[in-house]
Every structure is written in C-alpha cells, then in structure tokens.
Design goal:
Layout: H1 14-21, E1 25-29, E2 36-37, E3 53-57, E4 60-67, H2 75-78, E5 85-90, E6 97-100, E7 102-103, E8 123-130, E9 136-142
Parallel strand pairs: 7-9
Antiparallel strand pairs: 1-2, 1-3, 4-5, 4-8, 5-6, 8-9
C-alpha cells in the first residue's frame, strides 16, 4: 500500500495500532460512562474532563453496511478494484462502527471476495494485516470469533 495513504500515528491512536500489531482490537472507553469511543481522542465526548482508558474488545461484530468502489480510484487502489469496504458494528457496542474490508479468509487480498456474497447483519471477526512497518490494519472475515 502506498505510504502516503496510511494513517498518521499520534498519541491518541497509537494504542489502537499497537493492539493491531499484537493481533488484538483495542478501543477507548469512557472511564465514567463505560461507553466505547472511536475514533480515538484525548477526552471522552460524554465526560469531557475524563481521559478515556484503553480496553481490549472481542473483535466480533456484524456487517452494518458496505460499498464496492470501482475505478476511477486513487492509483494504489485501482489495481485492487472492485473491492468491498464494510462498516462493522462492534458486538460490545453496535453504535461503534469500524471501516474495513471483508475477506474470504485470513491473508486474502481485499478484492478476492465476490461482493454479491456480502450480507448486511452477517457476523464477522477481526483479523489483522501488516501493511507497513508501522501499520497493521484490522480486516474482517465471516463468522464468530
């Protein structure tokens, strides 16, 4: 993947990416309300004077929505198209949704799954793909974790 397209790592999101490198999904949680927070931020949106804590979550969820981008796309993605981009509602809090790609199996490329096979509400679990020296991203496969 083109290094220019990778997300920057700052102190707010570093624990998320460290968890991904270690093969686990980590989310911020409001220390007062216990609600999950994503994307990461320095303070809880529900208790503005409270610094969030990091917790490990199951990595399980359901497909909430999806799209299938087709060219023209940014050059690093054009050769992979068409591919899917899914929105996953986390099991621990379905209001928290992560963007990713649904793969037919761990280690597959993002364009391998037939988009017609994607079902809203299908259970998925996180798997992790190293895309650079610093960045490992969550991807998704079908089934409970």
């Amino acid at each position: 993947m083109n290094e220019v397209l990778l997300p920057p790592i700052d102190e707010d999101c570093a624990p998320f990416f460290e968890g991904c490198r270690q093969g686990e999904l980590r989310m911020q949680q409001c220390a007062e309300t216990r609600r999950l927070i994503f994307p990461p931020r320095p303070m809880s949106p529900w208790a503005p004077r409270v610094k969030p804590v990091w917790i490990r979550v199951s990595g399980r969820g359901t497909v909430w929505s999806f799209v299938v981008p087709h060219p023209p796309l940014l050059p690093p993605f054009s050769e992979l198209a068409p591919y899917n981009v899914i929105l996953v509602a986390l099991e621990e809090d379905p209001r928290v949704r992560l963007t990713g790609n649904l793969l037919p199996r761990e280690g597959a490329t993002i364009g391998e799954l037939d988009p017609a096979a994607i079902e809203i509400g299908a259970p998925v679990r996180a798997v992790f793909e190293r895309v650079s020296d610093e960045i490992t991203l969550p991807r998704w496969v079908r089934g409970p974790g």
